[in-house]
Amino acid sequence: MTPPFRVGAMQLTMEPLEEMLESARVMDEAGLDTIWLAEAYPWWRKHGMEAKSSTVLAGMIALQTTRLTVGWGIISPYTRHPVQAAMDARLVQEAAGPGRFIAGFGTSKIFLNNTKQGGPPKVTRPLATMRDSVEIMRGVLGGERFEYDGTVFSADIPALSPDADVPRWNVPVYIAGTAPLMQQLGGEIGDGLLTPSITTPDFVRYTLGNVRIGAEKRGRDPASVDVGCTVVASIHATDRDAGRDGAREIAGMYLANKVQNIQGSADTLLDLAQIDPEEIRPVAVAMEEGGRLAAKAKVSDSILDRCKPIAGTPDDCVAAIEEYKAAGCTHVMLELWGADRHEQIRLFGEQVLPRVRA
To answer: Is the pTM of this model over 0.85?
Structure first.
């Protein structure tokens, strides 16, 4: 079954708790489809923000909202055994209710470094780690007797008693991937595939090719895989430059991140955006030396344009979303940033979403 087109927003889990909860309430009221909790990593401590748990926050947001789907976008399987992750998922599932929770796993190279588990793929075994995590998550949540011996993780879980008072509905499991083999794994076993920040329409098309390869291995229809695309975003009712300001800032932060923390794996992403890593090195230096506002100042109009933001006036944002839809994106994930984000969320809800859903 082809997934419906959806528009959600990313929430970095590094802001004050009440601010994150209020943002979720505003998204719920504005009619956004999803809130994706991007688990912040300790690297943000250097820039005045504290990393916080997505799994804990997800349950709190589920209780604070009524229709918004809550997604882990993403958590790392290297920081939680998948049996523990399934226990966390069960709690969010119960708090959210049917159809309002998506579990998402991603390697998170920075978390590997923070936990001193980094190394080449033959050491970290990302594909095996991801496959085992997805299988165990589904096996535990399925409720049947589950025994699994994987390459990285294993599990031995008894069946749920028939009278156990727990949810029985399905929880979709998504995989985040930048590299081709991980994207192919998403097409093979994931309910969805999530792309990284600075995704462009060309990267969406590249991703769809990998999803297709993976789906064919399993005999699946590639169109059944929800393709979630993380896109830098901001909006203003009338002023295009003001409406691009937040996107410029979040682009600066993530371009710096590509240079400082995830070199190599982001090469194709940047190549397809026609961004030379050396061109954005000054952005990374500025981020390290002066913080996110200094990095923002180094993001030229040309660099921002090549990041293909969903930004500007409502007309600009509608046109950008339509470009992503045409490329094959089925789930836009707005990486929304900038001044008065709650008003930005309302603007998307009132002046953008009705037009892209028509």
So the answer is: yes
